[in-house]
Amino acid sequence: MKHVLITGANGEIGHGLIQQLAQQADVAIYALDLHPLDPALQQHCALVQQGDITDPRSLAAFQDVSIDQIFHLAAILSTSAEKQPETAHRVNIEGMLNILTFAQRNGQQFNHRVTVLFPSSIAVYGIPSLAQKHSAGPVTEDQWVTPITMYGANKVYSELLGRYYSDFYRLLDPHTTRYVDFRSVRFPGIISAFTLPTGGTSDYAPEMLHAAAQGKPYACFVREDTIIPFMVMPDAVNALLWLAQAPGEQLTRRVYNVQSFSLTAQEFADKVRQFFPNFQITFDPDPQRQRIVDSWPAAVDDSAARRDWNWHPHYDVERAFTEYLIPNIRRRYATETVASEQ
Ligand SMILES: NC(=O)c1ccc[n+]([C@@H]2O[C@H](COP(=O)([O-])OP(=O)(O)OC[C@H]3O[C@@H](n4cnc5c(N)ncnc54)[C@H](O)[C@@H]3O)[C@@H](O)[C@H]2O)c1
């Protein structure tokens, strides 16, 4: 049996990840979230704990389990973090430290390596101008790591903390064993057909789609020409699971870029209109959120992930819309309409 702990389990990625892991008979899932776990997910979990990741006592419920993998998803996302930067720092950094300390102790207690999977973000990048963004081409993991947001800074430091616990923990103590195996993917904007995002700065894309499917107009908070990379939720979940399973000797880095497709906001709206011809959109840029997405790359170079652990998205832009987003989103809102009419 593989024992897997998921923090922030009730969030968007948590939903996708738990549904996917639940299909594997040999996995026991342990969940932590600040909020009560969605009842649809609870049935798949061996143990559910409601608690705050900044409080180490929240993790005590799992201390007698020999944890093999941790997916540390609990976080405050980019737009929310700019509204409450000190809180974001506490949750994103103290939470990270608590999970790494827990992993180190758990590994020591059961004498095994604990793989810690961390979803980082394109928010770690901070390209200083639009001209440089457009001339940069796909950005590698080591370029432009100069974020302009609290969230981006938190992600960079979390990556470094993970690297420290894996490779350098207690460097001055020759008797210390390092039990943490930290691995991270830098996600682009993620779009789910089943859950609506809150607090992210790439949320305009999924918001457009969910508004169109409900026949509602949408005021987009970024300009038409805004471009960043995206992927759909099943690919994001695959990226985490594949990196978790990759043999350690194949990995040449601890942090990897991944992406599926890049679209401008206008191109995304045009795509949505192909399926919902009556969709009405206006562009009403919010200067603060615009500044954030303008500092993120138009595309990332994910060749290291492709080479080291065979990363490849199943869904390019066409398949993302025709095979995943549109059918599932239509079904979702058709069911809701029927339910509200009954
Ligand atoms: N969704 C994206 O587009 C995207 C892109 C890049 C990276 N990420 C990263 O992936 C991870 C998960 O993102 P998501 O989209 O599922 O976010 P989400 O906001 O949907 O979920 C985060 C979850 O963390 C929980 N949480 C927040 N504070 C907590 C605390 N103090 N203690 C315990 N739980 C707490 C929330 O209740 C929520 O269920 C985050 O680290 C995020 O930064 C997401």
Alpha-carbon Rg, integer: 20 Å
| CATH architecture title | 3-Layer(aba) Sandwich
Structural class per helix/strand content? Answer: alpha/beta
What is the tally of beta strands? Answer: 12
String of helices and strands: EHEHEEHHEHHEEHEEHEEHEHHH
The average pLDDT is 96
Given as residue ranges, the uncertain stretches (5+ residues, pLDDT < 50) are: none
Strand order of the largest sheet: 3-2-1-4-5-6-10
Strand content: 15-25%
Q: Bound compounds, please?
A: nicotinamide-adenine-dinucleotide
Largest sheet: 7 strands, parallel
What overall form do the CA principal axes indicate? globular
CATH superfamily membership = NAD(P)-binding Rossmann-like Domain
Brief overview:
The chain has 342 residues and is α/β, with parallel strands linked by helices. The protein has twelve helices and twelve strands. The radius of gyration is 20 Å and the shape is globular.
Outline the secondary-structure elements.
Elements: E1 2-7, H1 12-21, E2 27-33, H2 39-42, E3 45-50, E4 69-72, H3 78-83, H4 85-110, E5 114-121, H5 130-136, H6 150-167, E6 180-187, E7 189-191, H7 204-213, E8 218-220, E9 227-232, H8 233-245, E10 255-257, E11 261-264, H9 265-275, E12 281-283, H10 287-294, H11 303-309, H12 317-341
Parallel strand pairs: 1-2, 1-4, 2-3, 4-5, 5-6, 6-10, 7-9, 8-12
Antiparallel strand pairs: 9-11
Helix pairs in contact: 1-8, 4-6, 7-9
Nicotinamide-adenine-dinucleotide binds near residues 33, 34, 53, 119 and 190.
